[in-house]
Design goal:
The structure is a single chain. By secondary structure, this protein is α/β, with parallel strands linked by helices. The protein folds into two domains: about 230 residues, Aldehyde Dehydrogenase, Chain A, domain 1 (3-Layer(aba) Sandwich); about 190 residues, Aldehyde Dehydrogenase, Chain A, domain 2. Helix 9 links the parallel strand 8 and strand 9. The longest helix is centred in the first third of the chain and has 21 residues. It is globular and about 85 Å long. The protein binds 2-aminohexanedioic acid.
Length: about 500
């Protein structure tokens, strides 16, 4: 008699991944923070939350660690980040799988997220030998001016469920090489991936002798812990990713105590498809940007502005793709669209669809699928909304796969429509017309922090500055010269002469 081989449950798969990733058992049992998987809705683990007083003590320890860390030479700090990248590379597969289990992304996106972490470690390790300031001419003889960049202090990172590990890495890799210490409050929906990253970080740190302890700490819990980070006078900078609503709560509190902030909030990203666009290429770009990560990226394509002359060609093609896209278990190789994170996300999606229908839109898709197989999970067919004008719902970010499609006839009108939303994160134009592309990228074009030509709105590389304008919050993370936000700049004027001339020709002779 042969016994049927039982597939391990998702909780068992998770616990074996956590073991592989080196997460100590006591961190993942015996508490009341429930980690669930959106794949089935089942509970994966129940883990201890961090109390407010423990969080405050952790911030105090991070502050003490900062005093030691700021004096470690930057290239040596970069060595830690290089080793972190090495550990992440060695754990790309299990960590990517854990992201899939906990956040519901398809496997290649789970791995992609870990790849982003590795990439920023490479970038930051290089940067640790390139943090440099300007030397400037002084108007005074025998004087020199220069800028020096100094570590800032404790950096608080508040991250969202949809990029449960990469956002920490963009911030932590830069903060650490800049000489800051890090306190991380991940989304309470994704505590397990956070613990896995913490274990990986601790392994990297253990490879260097004589490092200060508490260089990066994770705090697990809900909004009250986020508030503890935001309000703590020792936290010099908070980098917060999430909704505009969250940003409205966080931004003013940080401003009130003159702390620095990097806010990466809602997006309502649009693409314009012009008459000369390569429609095949546009179709692929639109599909990934609008349906990838089940529409749960801040860079997700949410609005599509299509020129009248190509609308009736593109729309039927788009509808075919939407009708046939593979929705289901994100662990399966063919799946392109995994589950929404939870019931609240599903309800928000249905609410928006009901209202745009009532406003006269024609909605294709959007319905729940696989409800019989997974009564506690929320799989949906991505929705296309054909609508004549931008209603309040079109102008608002609904964190779900809804793509509103509008017609235009004049590029100026399309750009005006494009910018007529409160958010300003990412944008794209599909065109083969140089003039149209350049107009879109110009000062009178897209008003977003990211503007692309012939690629979609999502999937940015770490080398560029990442973030957006208006209600997106104005913050920038990741590449380019973003490191400057994690440091304080000192302007130094040095007099190597024997006279004391004053600037602006001022005289102040005391004898
Ligand atoms: C997010 O959704 O919070 O450009 C970040 C992208 C990713 C980052 C998304 N590199 O889509």
């Amino acid at each position: 008699m042969t016994l049927p081989t039982l597939e391990p449950t998702l909780a068992q798969q998770t616990s074996s991944l956590l073991q592989t990733l080196g997460v100590p058992a006591h961190r993942i049992s015996g508490g009341n923070l429930r980690a669930r998987t959106p794949i089935t809705g089942e509970v994966l683990a129940e883990l201890p939350v961090t109390t407010r007083s423990a969080a405050e003590a952790a911030i105090e320890r991070a502050h003490q660690a900062f005093f030691a860390w700021r004096t470690v030479p930057a290239p040596r700090r970069g060595e830690l980040v290089r080793l972190l990248g090495e550990e992440l590379r060695a754990n790309l597969d299990p960590l990517g799988r854990l992201v899939t289990l906990e956040a519901g992304k398809i496997l290649s996106e789970g791995r992609g997220e870990v790849q982003e972490m590795i990439d920023i470690c490479v970038f930051a390790a290089g940067l640790s030998r390139g943090i440099g300031g300007l030397t400037l001419p002084s108007e005074r003889p025998s004087h020199r001016m220069m800028e020096t960049w100094h570590p800032l202090g404790v950096t608080g990172v508040i991250s969202a469920f949809n990029f449960p590990v990469a956002v920490w890495a963009w911030n932590a890799a830069l903060a650490l090489v800049c000489g800051n210490t890090v306190v991380w409050k991940p989304s309470e929906k994704t505590p397990l991936t956070a613990l896995a990253v913490q274990a990986i970080f601790e392994r990297a740190a253990a490879r260097l002798p004589d490092l200060p302890a508490d260089l990066s700490t994770v705090l697990l819990g809900g909004g009250a812990l986020g508030e503890a980070v935001v309000d703590h006078p020792r936290v010099a900078l908070v980098s917060a990713t999430g909704s505009t609503r969250m940003g409205r709560a966080v931004g003013p509190r940080l401003a009130a105590r003159f702390a620095r902030s990097i806010l990466e909030l809602g997006g309502n990203n649009a693409a314009i498809v012009t008459p000369t666009a390569d429609l095949h290429l546009a179709l692929r770009g639109i599909a990934f940007a609008a349906m990838g990560t089940a529409g749960q990226r801040c860079t997700t394509l949410r609005r599509l502005l299509v020129h009248d002359t190509v609308y009736d060609t593109l729309l039927p093609q788009l509808k075919r793709v939407y009708a046939s896209v593979a929705i289901g278990d994100p662990r399966l190789p063919g799946t392109l669209v995994g589950p929404l994170i939870d019931r609240a996300a599903f309800d928000a999606m249905q609410g928006t669809l009901d209202r745009v229908r009532a406003a006269g839109a024609q909605v294709t898709g959007g319905e729940r699928v696989l409800a019989k197989e997974h009564p506690e999970a929320f799989y949906v067919r991505p929705a296309l909304v054909e609508i004549a004008f931008q209603t309040e719902d079109v102008q608002r970010e609904t964190f779900a796969p809804i793509l509103s499609v509008l017609r235009y006839t004049d590029l100026r009108d399309a750009i005006a429509l494009h910018n007529d939303v409160p958010q300003g994160l990412s944008s794209a134009i599909f065109t083969n017309d140089l003039r149209e592309a350049e107009r879109f990228l110009s000062a009178e074009g897209s008003d977003c922090g990211i503007a692309n030509v012939n690629i979609g709105t999502s999937g940015a590389e770490i080398g560029g500055a990442f973030g957006g304008e208006k209600e997106t919050g104005g913050g920038r993370e990741s590449g380019s010269d973003v490191w400057k936000s994690y440091m304080r700049r000192a302007t130094n004027t040095i007099n190597y002469g024997t006279e004391l001339p004053l600037a602006q020709g001022v005289s102040f002779d005391i004898d």
